[in-house]
Design goal:
Elements (H helix, E strand, L loop, with lengths): L8 H15 L6 H8 L3 H7 L3 H25 L7 H9 L6 H16 L1 H21 L3 H19 L7 H15 L10
Helix pairs in contact: 1-2, 1-4, 1-6, 2-3, 4-5, 6-7, 7-8, 8-9
Organism: Devosia soli
GO molecular function: DNA-binding transcription factor activity; transcription cis-regulatory region binding
Pfam families: TetR_C_28, TetR_N
Length: about 190
């Protein structure tokens, strides 16, 4: 009897990301992922019991990658003050890679439409906001800076707008400055 070939799970998830980028999460099929990975449908289903489980695995891996990137960036920050926002700014220093944008766009749609995936995103964002507030010398400034940074990333990741690199760098510096401020409340017009 022959030995079962070990399936590279990162390779399966890479293939799933490519399918999501090309076809959208709603159009992802186990068959398409298997074909993209060069394996059988049964091999995909062995570890990911359904299309939904496969999408969840892709999303979970994206969250782990994001967490690891921010932890890596925070590790390079010299001061503990404002650690979380500084790490986020460092992680955003480069615009998203072209091949990542399509997957980000299509996964965002899945996160929006699926209640269980949306809950994961809500929990992730709650954790980020809590960490920002805990590690900042100006919690309100850091929160406003985070909102500005996420707005910039939203425009780029969803391919709505791209700033020239020089302007983008300036915006990131200004967002960092915002994180250091003590905003005052003003009345809305």
């Amino acid at each position: 009897m022959g030995r079962r070939r070990a399936i590279d799970q990162d390779g399966v998830l890479d293939a799933a990301e490519r399918v999501v980028a090309r076809n959208g999460a709603a159009n992802l099929t186990v068959e398409a992922v298997a074909k993209e990975a060069g394996i059988t449908k049964a091999s995909v289903l062995y570890d990911h019991k359904s299309k939904q489980a496969l999408i969840e695995a892709v999303v979970d891996r994206a969250f782990r990658r994001d967490d690891a990137l921010h932890a890596q960036c925070e590790a390079t920050v010299e001061s503990e003050a404002d650690l979380a926002i500084k790490g986020r700014l460092l992680a955003a220093a480069e615009p998203p890679a072209e091949e990542f944008r399509a997957a980000a766009l299509n996964l965002s749609a899945a996160l929006t439409l699926d209640p269980s995936l949306r809950k994961k995103m809500q929990e992730s964002q709650a954790s980020v906001v809590s960490r920002l507030l805990e590690t900042s010398t100006s919690p309100r400034g850091a929160l406003l800076a985070y909102l500005a940074l996420e707005g910039l990333k939203f425009l780029e990741h969803l391919d709505f707008h791209h700033f020239p690199l020089e302007e983008r760098s300036r915006l990131l510096r200004e967002i960092h400055g915002l994180s250091q401020t003590l905003p005052r409340e003003v009345e809305l017009p």
